[in-house]
Amino acid sequence: MSCQGSCNCKPRCWTCTLALPIKPALLRCSLSSSPLAAAAATFSGSSPSFSGGGGGDDDGYGGGDGMLRSLHSSSSSDTDNNSGGCKNNGGGGGEAAAAVEGGGDQRAVAAAAPSTRDLLLACADLLQRGDLPAARRAAEIVLAAAASPRGDAADRLAYHFARALALRVDAKAGHGHVVVGGGAARPASSGAYLAFNQIAPFLRFAHLTANQAILEAVDGARRVHILDLDAVHGVQWPPLLQAIAERADPALGPPEVRVTGAGADRDTLLRTGNRLRAFARSIHLPFHFTPLLLSCATTAPHHVAGTSTGAAATASTAAAATGLEFHPDETLAVNCVMFLHNLAGHDELAAFLKWVKAMSPAVVTIAEREAGGGGGGGDHIDDLPRRVGVAMDHYSAVFEALEATVPPGSRERLAVEQEVLGREIEAAVGPSGGRWWRGIERWGGAARAAGFAARPLSAFAVSQARLLLRLHYPSEGYLVQEARGACFLGWQTRPLLSVSAWQPSSS
């Protein structure tokens, strides 16, 4: 049994070390009254009306220091992955690629490629080298073996990667069809997005941790402005709005809160604004919502801090077009949850961050996927086989987590894997997917270069994240760790998501 901070173990165990700053009994007592944690439980249901939630209790913190060691390591060493015999650097696909190039029947090819992972890496290698017929054969072999997205976690993972690679083969070949069902990737439906928010902790962890950083940064402000660069359905904001209302000075009343929500779909943004306004009225909070439409393509060059392409230029153009205003008496928070990977390159990322710094925000919150040490040091992972290997390691852990925590045959899990994770995999192995795996070192380095300094997450923010897992995802596999100024959520020993907070540097 893990100790709870009261034992005399030497060396001190992981749970005991974490418990040192706050005695566990006091920690549990303080967490039970946390307004953000309580609100997050209330407003994270599967319905767009922000209702539902609930979950079982569990007194165990879980533990293990393997992920912490991984987080502190910046090496891209070749470590075996549980889902296959290949290594993180994408090795092992060459022999399979040679076998597939040689043609022959599929049984002979399969015999030459001992694992599904090898075949997928071979497909990526062949695709990168331009041998589209052989790449197609490799994808078809995997699809034939894992012909349905309803098998076990390994089969489902293989299916989605084979499908994503097949789609890319067809796109490169200029075909007007795909080898499997479906067309161009579409945004996930609201039902699938909210189901993902319900059955997996990733979004709720990111939202809760970012919200706590924002709540602390705007404490005492009479006018609060939140610029959310990826508002989607707005599920992040009801818990924060409720926490702000509950902390209001009785003599002054609650502050005025303005959310500028960005997204690519106007109708979704309008519905999000209507729901948030209705919720704010129900808690008597002065509230305004402004939609900020971001286009996926830029039709003409528009300069932002010295650059002229991509999402940063689009954001600036959209802000000007919608009359985005920053008032001097407002305290500004900029929320970048699952947004920065949309920026195409280092120059665009730097320009965007300089644009944000010019707004003088009190806090900038960043949440992004982690490559678990396999992303390497470059700005992109341009080598496709290596990128597929990194992405497989990441999503293998995600699929294993869902396998362990969601009942077999769950329709919600199927919808999430097809509409959310499957489409993420398509994007991750697509032409621009290399930028998905920059990791906290790259985001942090870019933020510092743009004039930001890390704003340490409070012990309470980290404790709330652990409480979220304890109450709603009581599996021993999920871990929360604090390292390098960020808070990480992982499965087993692999970090999957990081949340960090930043503020303009005083220098």
From TrEMBL:
Lineage of producing organism: Eukaryota, Viridiplantae, Streptophyta, Embryophyta, Tracheophyta
Motif VHIID positions after renumbering to this chain: 224-228
Family of this protein: Belongs to the GRAS family.
Protein name according to UniProt: Uncharacterized protein
GO cellular component, one term: nucleus
Organism of this sequence: Oryza nivara
Keywords, comma-separated and alphabetical: Transcription, Transcription regulation
Segments passing through the bilayer: none
InterPro entries: TF_GRAS
Region (Disordered): 44-99
Compositionally skewed regions (Gly residues) per UniProt: 51-66, 87-99
